[in-house]
Amino acid sequence: MPKKPTAYTNVFLCILLLLSFANFTRADVVEMTAVRPITLNEHEQQWLSEHQPIRVGVDGYFPPYTYINENDQIVGMAVDTLLLIGQKLGIEFVINDEHRWPDIVKNLQQKEIDIVLTMVNTPERENQFLFTSPIVYKSLVIIGKNNNHQINNRSHIANKTIAIVKDYQYSDKLIKEFPSVTPFVVDNMREAMEAVQANQADAAITFLAAANYYQLKYSFSDLKFFAFYEKNNANESIAVRQDFPILASIMQKGLSSLSSTEKIAINEAWGANITLPKDNQDLIEFAAVAGVLILLLSVWILQARRNNQALTIANINTANANMALNELKNNLEKNVLERTLQLTISENRYRGLVESLEDEYIFYQHDTDGFVQYVSPSVTHILGLTITGFGEYYYKLLTDNPKNQLISGYIQRIINGEKLAPFEIEIFDTNGVIHTFEVLERPMYDDEGECIGCEGIAHDVTSRKQQQDMLYQLSHYDDLTGLINRYFFKILLDENIQICLQNQQPLALLFLDLTRFKIINDNFGHSAGDYILQQAATRISTTLNGTFTVSRFGGDKFCIALPNKAADEANAIATELVEVFQQHFEFLEQTIILGCRVGISLFPEDGKDAEAILNQADSALYEAKKRPFGVAFCNKQQAIHNKRRLIIEQGLRKALAEPVIEHYQLFAVYQPLILLPSQGLGGFEALMRWDHPDFGLISPAEFIPIAENTGLIFELSRWMLKTVCQQLVKWHEQGFDFKRVSVNLSALELMSINLADDLLAVITDIGAEPKWLKFEITETALMAIPEQSIDILQKLIQADIHVAIDDFGTGYSSLAYLKSLPATMLKIDQSFICNLIHSAEDQAVVKAVINMAHSLGKCVTAEGVELQDQLDFLIEHHCDVAQGYYFSKPMNADDAYHKYAVIINSMDDGAH
C-alpha cells in the first residue's frame, strides 16, 4: 500500500503551484507589452473604403485629455491615441468644428458625426450609442506640497483643510466621508492647486492627468502626489453611432492593438513632475491569495487528524439523538394541541385589530397577478365597497393619475424580494370621490418558500394631502396674482442657474417695480391697487415669450428669470415691458396711468447663485429709477459690493482671532420673548452683533451668509454659544430667573452628525446647564436633511434643551416629518406678521400655523410684532409667545438684567 503524503509534502507542493502561477502571470505581463497585430476581415475593409473619412466629435474643453490649445488646434492624450489608431488602420479621421459638449452629443444623436472621442459609458447612454473599452482612465488623487509629510494615504486628510471644486460630485462625497475636513471651495482644479501652493489648504483633490497638465503649464514645481483618492472612477470610452456596429468593432480592434509601450509613451508626453509611487497592489493580492491557500491547506490537514475523533463523538451523539427523538415523539401530540390553541388566539386578536381600524387603514392580500383575495371590513367605511363585492383586480379601482402607473413596477420589485418604502396610490370610492392612500406592502410565501403574492396596509391620507396642498399653495404662490412668491422663485431661480451652468448658457434676471403705485392706493383705495397688481401680472406674462419664470416679489415688485438670454435680449425685453406699462389702465371708468422701471443682472457675470444676482438686479433697479428710459444693468455696484464683501470676510477672520473674553468687535444682544396674554417674560433670544471698525454696526443678514460661504460659520457659532453660556452662568449667580435663552444654529452645522455632542460639550465646559438653553433652526435648514436633523434634535431634547423651528412658513415641511419632529416651538416668520392686519393671505397662514402647531402639542412664537393691532390679533387667535420691537429692541446683557430682573424681583416682593 503506497505511503500517504505528509502534511509537509502537501505544503511544499502548494508552494510550487503558487510559484508556477506567479511565473505564468509574469509571462502574461510580458506578452501584454508586445505589439498586437490588427486583422480586419474583408467586410470591415470594404466598409472602411466606402465610409471614409470618419467624422469625429471632440470636447474642446477637457484638458489634458482633449482641448483647444493656444493655436486653436484640438490636442490631448485621447487625440494622440486616435491618431495612432488611424495610422495603424489606415483611417482618415476628420474632427468636427463643434467642440461644446451638448452640441457634440446632439450631433452624434442626429448622425451628423460618426463617433465621439471621449464619453462616460452609462446605462442610459448604452440605449443610444455603442461603446468601446475605455480610451481614457481618470483617477482622483490627493496633491500637496513637497514639504508636507502628514498625508501619506487618503485617511490622513481627516482634520485637514482640503481644496475641492464647487459642485463636483466627489466634493459632497468627501464631506460625508470625512466630516472633520475643512473644505476650501474653489471654482476649478487649477485654483485648487494654487490654494495648496499658497498654503491656503493642506492638500487638493483633483484628477491625476489634470494635475499633471496644470503642474506643467503653470509650473507648480513644489507640489507632489500623496495618494489615490479614487482609482478609475470616471473612465471614458469611444462612443459610436447606434447604426454603425461594424465601426464600433473596428475602433475596438484599434484600441486593443495598442501596446503598453505605446500607451505609456502617450501618457508620458502629457506628464509632469508629480511622481507616482510604485503600486504594489498586485504583489499584495498575490501574497494574500498565497496566504489563504496555505491557511486552507493547514486547516485541511488539521481537519483530517480530527476526523477520527469526530466520528467517535458522532456515534455518541447519534445515540443521544435517538433518545431525544423518542422523547419528542411522546410529547408531539401535546405540543400540537397547545400550538393550535395559540394560533387561534393570535388570529382572533389580529382580526379584532384589523376590524377596529375602520376609519383610516385597510388591510388586504392579493396574488401575484393583482387579484385581491382578502380585504378588511374597513374598506366599507372608507370607500363604500362591500367585502364580498371587492374580489377584483386592484388596478380596476385606480384613477388615471400618472403615479398609479408605477404601482405594477413596485409590486414586481416587492415580489422579487426588494423592500420598498411606502408609496402613494389614488382610488375612487363608490361616489366617485378620489382617496389618496399611503401603501406599505410585503411579499407572502408558501411552505416551499415560493412567493404567492403580497399583503399590505393602505393608510387613507386624503385629509393630510389636502392640508399639505393648502399649505403648499399658501407658502409657494401669491394669493392675489396667482404668480409664484418670493420663496418659491428663489428655489426655481437656483434650479435655472444650475441648468444654465450645465449647458453653458447665460441667464438674465429682471427686477421690475411699478411707478406711482402708492398714489393709486392712496387715491383709489386698496381694491384699485389689487386690481392694478393683477393686471400688471397679466401684462408681464402675456408680453414674454419662450421660457421664463415670473414672481410677485412683494408689494408692487416683480421678478422675471429668463434662461438662455444674453444682455442684448434682456435689454430688448425690459424695454418692451416699459413700453407696455406706458399704456393706461381702466378701473371703474377711471383712467389710471402708471409706469415701470427695470433693473437687469446677468448670470454668470454678476453672480453665481440666486441670492447674488437678485441683489445685483435690485441695485440695478435703484439705478434704473434715475434714468429717463427706466432700464439699467448692474455695473459698478457689483464691484463695490465685492470689495465690501472681501473687507467683511477679512475683518471677520480678524475678529474671531481674538479670545472670547477680549472681543472688542463681536458681541451678543438679547431680545425678550413675551408670554401671551399675560405679557410676562418667557425668555430671551440671543442675537449676534458686529461693530466693524470701519463700517460700524453690520447686520447679521450681511455677515452671516459670508461666514457660511467661507466656512467661518462653525467658529462663529461656537463663539456665540460660549459667550451666551458665560452670560447665563453670571445671571444665574446673580439670581436672575431668565427662563430659557435661544441660540440660533446654522444650516451648515446640521451636516455634522456629532453636532449634539459638540454643543453639549461646550455647554458643560463653560459650566452652564442645558435646561437654560433653547436652540433655533430654520425650517428650510431642517428639511434639507430631515432624518439626520431629527436625530440631532432628539439628542438635544433628551439633554433637556428645547428646540424651536425658526422662520416657519417660509419653507415647505413634510407633515410626515413635522408631526414627529422633536421641537417644542414653531416661530412664525416676521414676513407674515408685518402685513398681518391688511393681508387676508397672511392672516390665513398665521391662523393655520397656530392651529396646526397646537394640534401637534407645540407652542407658537410670532416674530416681528411692532403694532398693537398685530398683538391683538395674535392674542385673539391664541398665539403663545410674541417677540418684536413693540416690546423691546435687542439689548445688551446689563440692560436686560436691570430691566427684567428688577421687574421680576419687584413682583416677588409685592407678592410677599
What does this protein structure show overall?
With 912 residues, the chain is α/β, with parallel strands linked by helices. The protein has 5 domains: 42-137 and 238-270, 3-Layer(aba) Sandwich (D-Maltodextrin-Binding Protein, domain 2); 140-234, D-Maltodextrin-Binding Protein, domain 2 (3-Layer(aba) Sandwich); 354-467, Beta-Lactamase, CATH 3.30.450.20; 481-634, Alpha-Beta Plaits (2-Layer Sandwich); 649-657 and 669-899, EAL domain (TIM Barrel). 46% of the residues lie in helices and 21% in strands. The chain contains 29 helices and 34 strands. The strands form 7 sheets. It has an 8-stranded mixed β-barrel, surrounded by 5 helices. Strands 5-1-6-13-7 form a 5-stranded mixed β-sheet, with helices on both faces. α6 (169-177) links the parallel β9 (161-165) and β10. It starts with 6 loop residues before the first helix and ends with a helix. The model is unreliable at 11-35 and 272-283 (pLDDT under 50). InterPro entries: Biofilm_reg_signaling, EAL_dom, EAL_sf, GGDEF_dom, Nucleotide_cyclase, PAS, PAS-assoc_C, PAS-like_dom_sf. Residues 421-473 form the PAC domain. Pfam families: EAL, GGDEF, PAS_4, SBP_bac_3.
How are the SSEs placed, and which strands pair?
Elements: H1 7-33, H2 42-51, E1 54-57, E2 61-62, E3 66-68, E4 74-75, H3 77-89, E5 93-95, H4 101-109, E6 115-119, H5 123-126, E7 129-136, E8 140-145, E9 161-165, H6 169-177, E10 182-186, H7 189-197, E11 203-207, H8 208-218, E12 223-230, E13 236-241, H9 245-256, H10 260-269, H11 281-356, E14 361-367, E15 372-375, H12 378-383, H13 407-415, E16 423-428, E17 434-445, E18 451-460, H14 462-476, H15 486-502, E19 507-515, H16 517-524, H17 526-543, E20 549-554, E21 557-563, H18 567-580, E22 585-587, E23 590-592, E24 595-603, H19 610-624, E25 631-633, H20 636-656, E26 666-675, E27 681-692, E28 696-698, H21 700-710, H22 713-733, E29 741-744, H23 755-766, E30 773-778, H24 779-784, H25 786-798, E31 802-808, H26 815-818, E32 825-828, H27 840-855, E33 859-862, H28 868-876, E34 881-882, H29 893-911
Parallel strand pairs: 1-5, 1-6, 9-10, 9-11, 24-25, 27-29, 29-30, 30-31, 31-32, 32-33, 33-34
Antiparallel strand pairs: 2-3, 3-4, 6-13, 7-13, 8-11, 8-12, 14-15, 14-18, 16-17, 17-18, 19-21, 19-24, 20-21, 22-23, 26-27, 26-34, 27-28
Helix pairs in contact: 1-11, 16-17, 20-21, 22-23, 23-25
